[in-house]
Write a structure and sequence with these properties.
- The protein is α/β, with parallel strands linked by helices.
- The protein has 13 helices and eight strands.
- A six-stranded mixed beta sheet has the order 1-4-5-6-8-7, sandwiched between helices.
- Strand 5, helix 4 and strand 6 form a beta-alpha-beta unit.
- The longest helix is centred in the C-terminal third of the chain and has 33 residues.
- The chain is globular.
- The relative contact order is 0.08.
Length: about 325
């Protein structure tokens, strides 16, 4: 799972909230019960014996509620780090999607860590012989250029998540993150949605070691204890479910290898599976060396200790699981 993966998961889960926050006028024209995500939208093209393909981050097919109902595509691309070839790639996405679906496209680029004016229309140009032959426009959202105070709302989860990148002004980083946690806790979202929000906030606030200690201290305060219990209970639930899955696997194997041995192996596999899931959620796709190290650990105590440390670790290196020798 690359850097953009959590963004994709967050935007797919809270797509309506995203559009309502940043493009309220567009949101007012969308028939929200019509949205369809076109997963792994790959477009290919061949020219002069060579082929290439593009895989768009998010492509959504929606209907409008205007007088004459129209089907359109909304294309969202997350670009990190920004590269000078990006405007041309946005044009390629547009061209390939347009040829494939024959539908109007509303293109959006999210630039998480680029200090540019937000919502400025960016263009890709081509010209010949002094004439401009092509102008392609798309909207970009430069998150670092946004002020938290302009977008923070009590109800919109995207505002809590994206506050990790926005300019917080004089707001204390730890207090702001704690407030994000509180909003998640008080929201009516499902457990899975809350876990996703917590993972995104924890990952992209990028606390230093000292800030992690300060944040954990904040969560131990009376007003935040329920928030801390929420976080621990959700990860406990994940661990319980994964352990149960591993236990069932082990019992099945135990029919042939011995019931007791199978049960112990099932518990161990459950903890390993939980740990791998936590690591993937937080850090993305794991190196094979990391997977091998986890599956080679035989001590349940060691596995449990690592699962606990994941909550505050900022990288695989912090856990000694980065694949380094």
């Amino acid at each position: 799972m690359e850097y953009d993966a959590l963004f994709k998961q967050l935007l797919k889960t809270f797509f309506r909230s995203f559009v309502e926050l940043f493009f309220p006028e567009v949101a007012s024209h969308i028939k929200w019960d019509s949205i369809e995500f076109l997963d792994k939208e790959e477009q290919s093209q061949e020219a002069e014996g060579q082929s290439f393909h593009r895989t768009a981050d998010i492509v959504v097919k929606v209907s409008t509620i205007d007088g004459n109902e129209e089907i359109i595509l909304i294309h969202v691309e997350i670009e990190h780090p920004w590269r000078s070839t990006f405007p041309f790639r946005m044009f390629e996405y547009f061209m390939l999607l347009r040829l494939s679906h024959r539908l109007p496209i509303f293109p959006i680029a999210i630039l998480p860590e680029r200090r540019i004016k937000p919502f400025e229309v960016e263009s890709y140009h081509e010209g010949l012989f002094g004439y401009e032959t092509l102008i392609y426009n798309y909207f970009h959202i430069g998150l670092l250029g946004l002020q938290v105070g302009d977008y923070w709302t009590d109800k919109n989860p995207i505002s809590w998540a994206f506050s990790a990148f926005m300019n917080r002004g004089n707001r204390d980083k730890i207090q702001m993150m704690g407030e994000c946690y509180r909003r998640v806790y008080e929201s009516s979202h499902s457990d899975d949605e809350k876990i996703l929000l917590l993972d995104f906030i924890r990952t992209y606030y990028q606390l230093s070691a000292n800030e992690v200690e300060g944040f954990q201290s904040l969560l131990r305060q009376g007003t935040y204890q329920e928030v801390r219990e929420m976080e621990l209970s959700y990860y406990g639930k994940l661990a319980q479910e994964a352990t149960k899955e591993g236990l069932q696997r082990g019992i099945q194997q135990g029919i042939q290898q011995g019931i007791q041995q199978g049960i112990q192996q099932g518990i161990q596999q459950g903890i390993q599976l939980t740990l791998l899931q936590q690591l993937e959620i937080k850090f993305g796709e794991l190196p094979q060396t990391t997977v091998n190290r986890i599956t080679a650990i035989q001590s349940q105590d060691e596995l449990t200790a690592l699962a606990t440390q994941v909550l505050t670790a900022s990288s695989l290196a912090d856990l000694g699981l980065d694949g380094a020798a």
